[in-house]
Design a protein that fits this description.
This protein has a domain of 157 residues: Rossmann fold (3-Layer(aba) Sandwich). Helices cover 33% and strands 13% of the residues. It is globular, with a radius of gyration of 18 Å. 39% of the residues are buried.
């Protein structure tokens, strides 16, 4: 059996062809973005454009879907691409190892991709990216707060206008309203109250490759970020398959 044989049963030849010809951009390859991007590779998407500036650190290993201890110190984008090609040697991966500042967000949008997934951590960069994606006019979805949560069943995929109980979502909504943006795009969010971050201790800090100040340390585990990434990959796949004739579903409840 080929690696995509089981997916082909679900989607048929037409569905697999549509995915193989599709391009998806994933901005950020952390706990959420890494899971979303790897799901898309496993699902048969033919081309991914992935953007991330960071290196794999030991503290990433509890939640980074594609990285192992031997990868510490390597660029996340390069590690992801290597793992992706081990799964599907035919997948096309375009790497953009760049830090997305707020001012540069619009310039870093991959305008030839049909679907876009925002998994950026920085608030200003996220807001500017979302505005640029809205102006581009192609389907996009965003990941909101997953740090500090432990219960993946509290995650939701709705329009961002319906999000609640998430401090990051609230701030993103407020800033987008001030920019005149309609809040009707999909977002993954959690209504679980987050565990607050801890202050970064004084003295030598863990290596940080991003420009700017050192931030407080957020708690995070594997379940919630990776589940959010699975949600986003499923949304992207469904979006790419709109209008494609898929195998007929049968059955129903048995009483």
């Amino acid at each position: 059996m080929s690696f995509d044989e089981r997916t082909r049963i679900l989607l048929g030849e037409a569905g697999m062809k549509a995915l193989a010809e599709a391009s998806v951009a994933v901005y950020g390859l952390g706990g959420v973005g890494g899971a979303a991007a790897m799901d898309l590779v496993r699902g048969g998407v033919g081309r991914l454009v992935v953007l991330d500036f960071d290196l794999v650190q030991e503290s990433n290993l509890n939640r980074l879907y594609y990285a192992y201890r031997a990868d510490i110190g390597r660029p996340k984008a390069e590690v992801f691409a290597a793992r992706a090609r081990e799964i599907n040697p035919e997948v096309e991966i375009e790497l953009r190892e760049a830090f997305m500042s707020g001012a540069e967000a619009a310039a870093l949008v991959s305008r030839d991709c049909g679907v876009h997934i925002d998994c950026v951590d920085s608030l200003n960069s996220k807001v500017n990216l979302l505005v640029a994606l809205a102006e581009l006019g192609r389907p996009f979805a965003s990941s909101l707060g997953t740090a500090g949560r432990t219960d993946p069943t509290r995650l939701r995929l709705t329009t961002i206008s319906r999000s609640h109980g998430c401090p990051l979502a609230r701030e993103v909504r407020n800033r987008l309203r001030r920019r005149g943006m309609t809040l009707d795009f999909p977002a993954v969010w959690s209504d679980e109250p987050p565990v607050p971050p801890i202050p970064r201790p004084p003295g030598p800090a863990e290596a940080q490759t991003a420009p700017g100040r050192l931030r407080n340390i957020q708690g995070s585990g594997p379940a919630v970020p990776q589940t959010a990434g699975h949600f986003l990959a499923a949304w992207a796949t469904k979006t790419l398959l709109e209008g494609v004739e898929l195998p007929t579903r049968t059955g129903g409840n048995n009483g």
